Amino acid sequence: MINRSSADVDIYLVRTGQRIRLGLAPNNQTTKFSLTPALTIGAGTVRFEAVPLVGGNTISTDPTTLQPNATVTPDVPPP
Predict the structure, then answer these.
(1) Per residue, what are the HEC states of 3-57?
(2) CB of 74 closer than 8 Å to CB of 48
(3) What pLDDT, on a 0 to 100 scale, did the predictor assign at position 4?
(4) What Rg value do the Cα atoms of the chain yield, rounded?
(5) Contact by Cβ (8 Å): 61, 48
């Protein structure tokens, strides 16, 4: 997760209507999250959401399909 915003954000994986918190992405930093097979197997398409800790709007990625051992790099743009 590349967080180019000025806010710390909580990162969530959203799949089949379920929202799973992955962790915190501090402002102006790149943070890596490892997804367990349980989160990716049979997930179909997923989205990532970045929720600012203080104020601001939730940012959601376009739906994407996760592949085993793939690297996905969502980006939180600056305000």
Answers:
(1) ECCCCCEEEEEEECCEEEEEEEECCCEECCCCCCHHHHCCCCEEEEEEEECCCCC
(2) yes
(3) 93
(4) 12
(5) yes
* Nearest C-alpha neighbor of 36 from the set 22, 15, 25: 22
- C-alpha 72/C-alpha 79 separation (Å) is 22
Cα–Cα distance for residue pair 73/32, rounded to 1 Å: 9
Q: What percent of the chain has pLDDT over 70?
A: 99
35/38 Cα distance (integer angstroms): 8
Exposed/middle/buried for residue 58 (C-beta within 10 Å: 0-12, 13-18, 19+): exposed
Which parts of the chain sit beneath pLDDT 50?
none
- Judge contact between 70 and 43, C-beta under 8 A: no
